[in-house]
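Example record used in the benchmark description.
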Amino acid sequence: MAEIGKKEDKIQWLIREISAIVERLEHFEAKYSAELSEVHPNFIKSARNLIHYRALRKEDIRPIQKKLANLGLSRLDKPESHVMASLLASKAILEGFLNNEPIKKHKAELTFKKSNRLGKSNAKSLLGYRSKGRRTRIMVTLPTEVAYDYQLAHDMIASGMNCARINCAHDSEKEWSLMIGHIKSASKKLKKKCKISMDLGGPKVRTCALAAGPKVKKFRPTKDVRGNVIKDCELWIGPVPHPNADLSHLPVALTSLEKLKAGDQLFFRDTRNKKRAFTITKTTENGCIAQCGKTTFLETGMKLYTNADYSSTPIVIGELPRVEQFIRLHTGDFLRLHKDAVQGEPALRDKDDNLISQAQISCTIGDIFEQLSEGEPVFFDDGKIEGVIRHLARDEMTIEIVNSKITGSKLRADKGINFPGSKLEFRGLTAKDKKDLAFVVQNADIVNVSFINRKKDVSNLITELKKLNPPKGFGIILKVETQSGFNNLAKILLEAMKTYPVGVMIARGDLAIECGWDNIGRVQREILSLCRAAHIPEIWATQVLENLSKQGIPSRAEMTDAAMAQRTDCVMLNKGPYILQAIKLLSTIFKDMELYQEKNARLWPAMQRADIH
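Model output (structure tokens):
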């Protein structure tokens, strides 16, 4: 009997604690009644649930969870999207146990089923239709090539892309318009609606331009581990690139190629004055295919000849793209960062490797200099290079590199710069953002907005959008990438819920630097939980299948990361030479994982292969 009494005491304690939590939720709901009255009609129940969830998490409820688990009941471990319903259901079960009576349900405004429907409906409104066999959508950053290659746009959608992302920090309205035209044409042909989102550049601090590189291109045959050629380099010679993107392009006027035939050779000296020759293997009306068995460097304006003594009429090489320059930085090096526009250059050394001048580069937002201090950390390119401000002046600073690759890390133009130890204040949209926003409203379905740090940033965005009169259903995705953005996320979401539809992108690269690598797991999880409480779709971004997209081979770690990403509504892939393979693989992973995971709820299909017979 003593044991029974002890059990009854635990149940009564749990009922009292849960009742107190319900009262706290109702108190916070009343406290935020003014904010709740301003949300969009589609978000009324969701906004109320968000308030409930934030109120629930103000106290440590682990003792309650453990006691519920000891009784074999739900531990309230996944209440985000239906907080009040979860609490009332647990309370009803406990009361039934205590009184030995049938369970009497306490009716909640937002039931388990309704909350699930809300989440799916909001994701569809923002991100469009999902692909057959998977719930999680795939967003892909478009490379510039899509502007000039319809087939690439077609293949990306056919491979499983649901939403095309255009970054306004790159290219111009001309390229954006061409990209959008190709995406829309391919969507229509494939009968697969692909949403278009556009990223405003935002007040992100980036590196500025480096000195222009030479217009040189390298052609290299495939070699084995011993350096022996196992396959000649194959290239396309013609005025425009070949439809087969695997063929390297050498631009030459079509009139110069008219008399060439298979078996002919083109002789020349490359940029190193080494004798080289191309062998023509196939000719067409648009150009020809050639092979070369030795590594070759060619430059704009160089001449090719049809005879070995270079006496024939020369075939002149057209405009080659400039080689992208970089600054190689080692641990212990110093880098000068300028406030005003200064052409970036690597360190200059004499023949004895003595330093003549330090490496230098400019940044995009000079106002930060007034908000920084000596001794504060600096990160470049998503944390790949770490430095410390050693000297700070009005118009430049000297940064000591304290962490890089052993062989040195490459710093290029347009790479992000983070100051996680500084409290930088950025005010609203930049002038370029406002100009770009007008284009986005007219041409895209969604605008992605960077560096949302506080409620005011959202209200300013909504004000600007109203001036442009966006079409019904125009979506907003808020990018959370700073500690301030995370700290203020509940209020940011409430402000954003004044419009519809809305989503949140978790920019894990910047966020990891701003919040600390040791905190990114916790912060990422908390952002997901707040979004689920608000029934706001979340987009998982930064370095998903990055190795595969860039190098053609995925790492084990990123395969696991991709599988975990299936818990979100959408995952973003960055551009790369192997982007089609990345899209296909990610789609396959999501379809396989669909049996085991629905949002944050694990599912249990029959186990495969590890059966007991």
